[in-house]
Amino acid sequence: MSTLKKEITLDETKNMAREVVCNRCDNTTNHLVCSSAKYSWDHDGDIQGIDIYEIIRCSGCDSISFRHASSNSEDFYMDDEGRYIHEETEEIYPGRLMGRAMLENKYFLPAKVRSIYDETHAAMCSKLPILAGVGIRALVEAVCTAESTKGRTLEKRIDDLVKREVLTKRNAVVLHKTRLLGNRSAHEIEGASDSELDVAFDIVENLLETVYIIPKKAESIK
User: Fold this and answer.
1) Does one domain contain both 75 and 112?
2) Are residues 133 and 177 part of one domain?
3) What secondary structure letter does DSSP report for 101?
4) What is the pLDDT of residue 172?
5) Is the domain of 122 the same as that of 89?
6) 21: part of which helix (H) or strand (E)?
7) CA 138 to chain CA mean position, Å
8) Considering the domain boundaries, does residue 75 fall inside one?
9) Are 131 and 206 members of one domain?
10) Same domain, 133 and 175
11) 189 vs 216, which has greater pLDDT?
12) Are residues 144 and 118 in the same domain?
């Protein structure tokens, strides 16, 4: 009968510094460990591992994140000097990507549009290409619905944004490309590349700024 031995140590890494991408600073910054729990385990003396759970705080903006680092005796490689190095995997919550901070004034977005934007941004940061592609298409549809556009297809509804002078023809041509990318994700279950998703999400964020954020900010100009 197999046995699992485990031991939990609290705050062993407290006050240590971690270099982590901050989702507010949008850069790699030092994060201070506020609290931690180290979970060490041993399975029948054959496999050993360590999981470290930490609450961390950015030294720049004070935002709070959660860090999980794990390693085990089976995942290792040998360096140039013949030493065994155990690899450590790291996950940070909420997920984040360098250069992919949320829109600063996203609170100007309609509630349903903002909800889809939040979920799509999370899919981008979690590197879930199919869900991100579907989310990008859903964002375009949500804007069309919020603006009461006419047309049986999303293509026609985007064109209606041009007729209403919400979008320029050039921007509509670009937006159609994101529609096709979303179709590929939704109907062909095919994830786009990171570079395609980055460009598509930039385009959709530009749409959100054009339709909602810039007009709201312009209201404050006298």
Assistant:
1) no
2) yes
3) P
4) 79
5) no
6) strand 17-22
7) 16
8) yes
9) yes
10) yes
11) 216
12) yes
- What is the DSSP code string of 172-197? HHHHHHHHHHHHHHHHS--PPPHHHH
Give the pair of three-digit tokens for residue 30: 């030092």
Q: Which domain holds residue 75?
A: 4-93
Closest CA to 138 of 114, 167, 170: 114
Its sign, for the CA torsion 160, 165, 170, 176, is: negative
C-alpha–C-alpha distance, residues 126 and 204, integer Å: 18
CA–CA dist 188, 39 (Å, integer): 42
Asked whether residue 100 is assigned to any structural domain, the reply reads: no
| CATH number, domain containing residue 191 | 1.20.120
pLDDT value at residue 99: 66
Q: Write b or e for each residue in 145-175: b if 16 or more Cβ atoms lie within 10 A of its Cβ, otherwise e.
A: eebebeeeebeebbbbbbeeebbeeebbebb
pLDDT tens digits, one per residue of 129-164: 888 888 988 998 899 888 888 888 888 888 888 888
